[in-house]
Known about the structure:
By secondary structure, the chain is of the alpha+beta class. It has a single domain, classed as Glutaredoxin, CATH 3.40.30. It has three helices and four strands. It is globular, with a radius of gyration of 12 Å.
Amino acid sequence: MVxxxxxxxxxxxxxxxxxxxxxxxxxxxxxxxxxxVEREAWNEMxxxxxxxxxxxxxxxxxxxVGWLPPEQEYKIVDLLRENKIDFEQ
Length: 89
């Protein structure tokens, strides 16, 4: 399961959009969670990473905070493979 934590508190979150575009480009199924609206999700995210930075991507048990492709692309692809999550190259 891939979770993408975003926030509706920001009018425009270009890095959130970049993360979504990456996931769509690779045809990755994910659950987008608006941490500003879903308080329990906010607590879960903060407990795991101790950070309030968006987006946050959770693949299996590994969190990626922020978005810095292409620096993170190889790591994301490796995590998708390790967690047996379908994606397109």
